[in-house]
Design brief:
The complex is a heterodimer of chains A (453) and B (136).
Chain A (H helix, E strand, L loop, with lengths): L9 E3 L9 H5 L5 E4 L2 E4 L9 H5 L5 E3 L12 E6 L1 H4 L8 H10 L4 E4 L4 H13 L6 E2 L4 H10 L13 H15 L7 E7 L2 H8 L11 E4 H14 L33 E5 L1 H12 L8 E5 L15 H21 L12 H7 L17 H15 L15 H9 L9 H9 L5 H12 L3 H4 L4
Parallel strand pairs in A: 5-6, 5-8, 7-11, 8-9, 10-11
Antiparallel strand pairs in A: 1-4, 2-3
Chain B lengths: L1 E7 L8 H10 L6 H21 L2 E8 L3 E9 L6 H4 L9 H5 L7 H8 L2 E7 L3 E9 L1
Antiparallel strand pairs in B: 1-2, 2-3, 3-5, 4-5
Classes of the chains: A alpha/beta (453), B alpha+beta (136).
Chain lengths: 453, 136
């Protein structure tokens, strides 16, 4: 079985892109090429981690969400807000205050996603009792799940078959609103997302046909609107009077909390490069006796999400403050936590599973092994002509990627500027032709700009 | 398609580089993930054996449309009793090697388990030749 749904959130605006290739150099799955003067993403390789977004000096890369534009007036609108959003604001603002400001944007109700963590903890216990092969890899971070699909096909079976907390929250809200008599067809659930990968997870989920999230909204957009409300009307006095979830729930999306709740030996790994280094070893069987791997594509987990405007380290500090505040409330109530979601935990357990995740074809040279072998031989031969220092002047991130593109008929050997010189010397290529080749990669007039015009 | 890699004995920090490179190549072929995993494990274990026991070695690969053949030859102390070496849990690894987390005596049995054909020959004092094949 293969997964061939290549829906993506990360997009490049050709109007803004100047083909500077910063993105191409940081892409972990080597999904970006420069063609006709701007960056293009290969859909079968992109995992929506957003590393390209971070480095784009032109702000030409964006995360396409569903947006707030189509707020249907008649629907009951619920905003799912992750704890990292509250961590965007200094600790002087209480969580209740921030969530209320989000509500004022035009929602009927606001729900903090991390309220589902108490349920997640239970789910981990019951999954740990099952006899799935170890280590299980957390399904929390959609960029990690997609990275495994593209680059570590033999590890897809290790991915935990459990829905993400925001999906559980959406399911819970549908159940509880229906009980309150709200027409289920008239409920719209919005998710305020800290990253692009979670937009894709809602639009094209893996392991399930449809996500319970209706609409995704870029956290930056909500941040701007909420900031205006918070700064205009600083209304003190909105504070929680009881702990509505276990205090450490607020840290779930960061690095290191989730792993504590899987029985046995577990590790927390954050940052794309670190995740890749570890999966590489895991795939070769170099790592044994680990039960659970918590993995986050972003450094510091979701606090480092590409759509979070605040500094990730400040966010982590604020969430730690929040953890302490909730702990105080809990202690004052003799250790009592009042989480209404847990009244539905039995029902949620039945709905929380997902189907197996299947690999993607991103790295395949050819469906047919015999043809792929011939292509591989050609790649090895081509490599002997290339300089091997991955200058990127061909519009591909490395010499090997250029060779791969050539055997897939997506590029030509003359794209290499070194090979061009040799071809010119041997009269295989005229200077005019070489010029055309460069313009084909870096865009028309690209060389003119640097001639002092 | 033939590929050759050099493996340095005793260089534990570099152990796994050759098998990792080969793994990257194999991912470009349409072979089942399960098979890929088996090959990856067998490759790593055989590379590790050279690193842990020999002075130096080479890994020769021959990828065919229906199989992959791996030959690992090393210069080293060789194996005195091959039958014994194939037993699970048997290892001649030094205490030093074991403290690094290697030498559990699972390497050769692991290669056997993850390959379709395996042949091990050795001349004590000269070196070892390991040959295995995985059919796609």
């Amino acid at each position: 079985m293969k997964d061939r749904d290549y829906t993506h959130s990360i997009q490049i605006d050709p109007e803004r892109c100047i083909g500077c290739s910063h993105c191409m150099r940081v892409c972990s799955t080597r999904a970006i090429r420069i063609i006709d003067g701007y960056a293009r993403i290969q859909p079968e390789r992109c995992v929506d981690c957003g590393e390209c977004f971070r480095v784009c000096p032109q702000r030409a890369i964006y995360a396409k969400d569903d947006g707030l534009d189509n707020l249907p007036v008649e629907n009951y609108k619920i905003a799912l807000v992750p704890s990292v959003f509250i961590g965007q604001y200094p600790s002087d603002y209480s969580a209740t205050q921030v969530l209320d400001a989000v509500r004022q944007i035009g929602f009927d109700e606001v729900f903090e996603v991390e309220q589902t963590v108490d349920f997640m903890k239970e789910a981990y216990q019951s999954i740990a009792e099952g006899n799935s092969s170890r280590p299980l890899i957390s399904s929390y971070c959609p960029a990690v799940v997609r990275l495994i699909q593209v680059q570590y096909p033999s590890l897809t079976g290790q991915i935990m078959r459990l829905k993400a907390p925001h999906d559980i929250a959406a399911l819970y809200l549908r159940i509880s609103k229906e009980k309150e008599g709200v027409d289920p067809d008239k409920i719209s659930i919005y998710y305020v997302t800290p990253c692009a990968a979670k937009i894709v997870a809602a639009r094209a989920p893996v392991g399930e046909a449809k996500s319970p999230i209706d609409i995704t909204v870029n956290m930056t957009v909500i941040y701007n609107k909420t900031s205006k409300i918070l700064y205009d009307t600083k209304k003190p006095g909105l504070h929680k009077t009881f702990a509505n979830m276990s205090p450490d729930s607020v840290n779930w999306s960061l690095s290191g909390t989730e792993k504590e709740y899987f029985p046995g030996r577990s590790l927390a790994i954050d940052g794309m490069d670190n995740v890749i280094e570890f999966l590489e070893k895991l795939e070769s069987g170099q790592i044994s006796d680990i039960d659970f791997l918590e993995m986050r594509a972003c450094d510091q987990g979701c606090a480092g999400g590409i759509l979070c405007p605040a500094n990730r380290f400040l966010t982590v500090e604020r969430l730690s403050d929040r953890h302490k505040k909730l702990q105080k409330l809990k202690d004052r109530d003799n250790g009592r936590v009042v989480n209404y979601l847990m009244d539905c935990s039995k029902m949620l357990h039945e709905m929380s599973g997902v189907d197996p995740v299947y690999p993607r074809d991103g790295l395949l040279l050819d469906e047919d092994i015999e043809k792929a072998l011939i292509k591989l031989q050609r790649i090895e031969r081509l490599m002997s002509y290339f300089p091997g220092f991955d200058c990127g002047a061909c519009g591909a991130p490395s010499c090997r990627n250029l060779a791969e593109d050539i055997v897939k008929d997506k590029a030509s050997i003359s794209h290499c500027v070194f090979v061009q010189r040799v071809m010119e010397k041997n009269y295989k290529l005229s200077p005019d032709q070489a010029f055309v080749v460069i313009e084909k990669i870096w865009g028309k007039g690209r060389l003119d700009k640097y001639a002092g015009k | 398609m033939k590929i050759k890699y050099h493996i340095e004995g005793g260089d534990f920090s570099a152990a796994g580089i050759a098998s990792s490179e080969i793994k990257k190549i194999l991912k470009q072929f349409n072979i089942s993930p399960l098979l890929l995993r088996r090959i990856a494990i067998a490759l790593y274990e055989s590379e590790m054996n050279v690193v842990a026991h020999a002075y130096r070695g080479t890994m020769h690969l021959d990828i065919q449309p229906s199989s992959i053949q791996v030959v690992v030859e090393d210069e080293g102390p060789g194996i005195g009793n091959i039958e014994k070496a194939m037993e699970e849990g048997f290892s001649t690894a030094t205490e030093e090697v074991r403290q690094m987390g290697f030498g559990a005596g699972m390497g050769l049995p692991n290669i056997k388990r993850n390959s379709d054909e395996m042949k091990l020959t050795s001349t004590p004092g000269v070196g070892t030749r390991l040959e295995f094949k995985v059919i796609f």
